[in-house]
Design brief:
The chain is mainly beta. About 0% of the residues lie in helices and about 50% in strands. It is built from no helices and eleven strands. Strand 7 and strand 8 form a beta hairpin. The chain is globular. The relative contact order is 0.32.
Length: about 120
């Protein structure tokens, strides 16, 4: 059974940082890329970042490039999203998802498995 479980969300002031984790089971990071997505109230789900399976190539949305590095720990089957210099517009529910192979450019339909999401709120 495949499971993706996000954690690490919360309330933070503008300019602050949070580190999200995506704990995976039932999928191997040697074969699956892990993407991070977010969905704000009333908006469509959008891609944030992705890390590919074998070569660890990363992709980022322009809105987070340079602020949200993504990494993974093969031993623990966990992927991390370090969120720095957070802005109010980063407020959303953040999801991780698994896609076979390499990052496809945030195509929602390409992802086979999704987590339940974790809320991130950036407010003063």
């Amino acid at each position: 059974q495949v499971q993706l479980v996000e954690s690490g969300g919360g309330l933070v002031h503008p300019g602050g940082s949070l580190k999200l984790s995506c704990a995976t089971s039932g999928v191997s990071l040697n074969y699956y890329a892990i993407g991070w997505f977010r969905q704000a109230p009333g908006k469509e789900r959008e891609g944030v970042s992705c890390i590919s399976s074998t070569d660890n190539r990363t992709d980022y949305a322009d809105s987070v490039k340079g602020r949200f590095p993504v990494s993974k720990d093969r031993t623990k089957t966990t992927v991390y999203l370090q969120m720095n210099d957070l802005k109010p517009e980063d407020t959303a529910v953040y999801y991780c998802a698994a896609e076979l192979g390499y990052c496809s450019g945030f195509v929602l339909g390409a992802y086979d498995y999704w987590g339940q999401g974790t809320q991130v709120t950036v407010s003063s």
